[in-house]
Amino acid sequence: MPRIDVTDDLGSWMSLRPDMAPGLVAFSEAVYGRSQLPRRVQEIARMRIALANECEVCRTARYADAQADGIDEAFYADVPRWRESARFDLREKLAAEYAERFATDHVALRADDDFWQRMRAAYGDAEIVDLAMCCALWLGTGRTMRTLDVGQSCALTLGAA
User: Fold this and answer.
1) Could you tell me where the DSSP H helices lie in the chain?
2) How many CA atoms lie within 13 A of 123 on its CB side?
3) pLDDT digits (tens, 9 = 90+) for 16-67
């Protein structure tokens, strides 16, 4: 049940601040429409944050055309076991590690020189910024929706990127 007085759907909570909502919508459109990261990299990071946030709408959101990128329910089932799974390549595992640590201990992540050496060997700086911006959207909006308890029973099908 929402913790604020709105209809329990994905976007009604933003209607309470119509002057701010366009900024969040634009940020979301940039992440979903302009990221240059491969879809699998985005999805493992998005799902890792969705699990950390315990956000049901984020956890159950799926791309309509995900099969074309080799993303199926087995992919999502393996995200909690990303370290051990043979399903994910090095870049995907690094994205999962980044997202997990971004969500749970960003200070230690910043200070981990070993991680950054591995990350910079696999990703260019622009890709790292891309991933950081994606994770910022997912962490912030997912936690907001979960905390306010809005949209948690809504199904979300994402369009093509």
Assistant:
1) 21-34, 39-53, 56-60, 73-78, 90-104, 106-111, 113-122, 125-148
2) 24
3) 999 999 999 999 999 999 999 999 999 999 999 999 999 888 999 999 999 9
Q: Is the pTM of this model over 0.70?
A: yes
Q: Can you state the angle between helices 125-148 and 90-104, rounded to 10 degrees?
A: 50
DSSP one-letter code for 63? E
d(CA 13, CA 151): 9
Residues 6+ apart with CB under 8 A from 13: 2, 4, 6, 144, 145, 148, 150, 151
DSSP, res 158:
E
| Residue 91: both structure tokens together | 């870049």
Q: List 158's β-bridge partners, or say none.
A: 63
For residues 60 and 114, is the Cβ–Cβ distance under 8 A?
no
Alpha carbons 34 and 54: distance in angstroms, whole number: 26
What CA–CA distance (Å, rounded) separates 121 from 28?
A: 28
- Model pLDDT for residues 75-102, shown as the tens digit of each residue: 999 999 999 999 999 999 999 999 999 9
